[in-house]
Write a structure and sequence with these properties.
Helix content is 49%, strand content 22%. It is built from 8 helices and 7 strands, in the order H-H-H-H-H-E-H-H-E-E-E-E-E-E-H. It has a 7-stranded antiparallel beta sheet, with helices on one face.
């Protein structure tokens, strides 16, 4: 049992070292094949000499996974929040692999079986690195503000910090905006977006006062700040794997001196499996966007003259 558990722990540590630090790949190999191989290897080894119950096998498989994750934190290879986000998918695959490993042990397959599975991991990591994912995500959020477009424009271009409290996105360590600063006016002006993780350098691409402000992000801050006992974590995914491209603020005048403000943003997600990570990324982006909209509404309505 100890050998099976330790084998699972070692596979997790080696997989992250090779996939993330050597190949810089966060894909099917790391998030799908690795937990399955951990489960299969642990399940096979703990049942090789004496067949365990399915419950006992699952417990040992999940123990190996938990200890492996603890090792990633202790060696500063990952942070707690990323591991929590990946755990539903990884846990399910590990349990499935453990069931197959238990079955293989019961049927008396050759002892080298788990080694063949482990040997597949570097090949999958290389494949992920050669063909990385690149999914385009579009955010489209709107809010109606009880203020004219001129007041909304002032709030959009203001340097004032965002007063709205960070949502759960920020409390989890994911980047959230704190304020924006325009250096000049018109197309081509520089804009700085201050986030909880750093500063985004931006360039204005559309400038129509009281109507449209558009900009493109030239330099991204880290996508998140990992929760870890260490100041620096060797987690490559915080840079370059989720980025924001073009962003637009559109102001549409409505009756009664009201304005519909819409934020349109394009994002790039480069982590597989997209089908698993995209909903999480969309939730984080939408949460941040709605927070910005609420803050602009608050500022614009507070600045509007009485009776507006």
């Amino acid at each position: 049992m100890i050998a099976g558990t330790l084998a699972g722990v070692c596979i997790i540590l080696l997989a992250v070292l090779i996939s993330a630090l050597v190949f810089r790949a966060y894909g099917w190999g790391l998030f799908v094949l690795t937990p399955f191989v951990v489960g299969f290897t642990t399940g096979y080894l703990v049942n090789r000499h004496e067949l365990q119950t399915m419950k006992a096998t699952n417990t040992l498989v999940l123990l190996a996974a938990a200890l492996g994750c603890l090792g990633l934190i202790m060696f500063a290879l990952e942070g707690l929040i990323c591991l929590i986000l990946a755990s539903p998918l990884a846990g399910l695959l590990a349990v499935g692999g453990g069931a197959l490993g238990r079955r293989a042990a019961r049927l008396g397959k050759e002892p080298a079986g788990p080694l063949y599975c482990v040997a597949l991991l570097p090949l999958m990591f290389a494949a992920d690195a050669i063909s990385p994912p690149d999914a385009l995500m579009l955010t489209d959020e709107s809010i109606v503000i009880n203020a004219p477009t001129s007041r909304v424009w002032q709030a959009v271009t203001s340097d004032d910090p965002i007063r709205e409290s960070p949502t759960i996105v920020g409390r989890l360590g994911l980047a959230y905006p704190e304020r924006g600063h325009l250096d000049g006016t018109g197309v081509g002006a520089a804009r700085s977006g201050y986030f909880s993780t750093g500063v985004a350098r931006e360039k204005v691409t559309e400038w129509q006062p009281n109507k449209t402000l558009g900009f493109v992000v030239l330099k991204q801050p880290p996508a998140m700040r990992e929760t870890s006992p260490y100041r620096h974590v060797h987690a490559q995914h915080v840079n370059g794997y989720f980025e924001t491209g073009e962003t637009r603020f559109e102001m549409e005048p409505l009756r009664g001196q009201r304005t519909r403000l819409t934020i349109l943003a394009a994002h790039r997600l480069r982590i597989d499996p997209i089908i698993y990570w995209e909903p999480i990324a969309r939730w984080a982006a939408s949460s941040n966007t709605r927070r910005v909209l609420r803050d602009i509404r608050s500022k614009a309505e507070a600045a509007a003259p009485p009776g507006a």
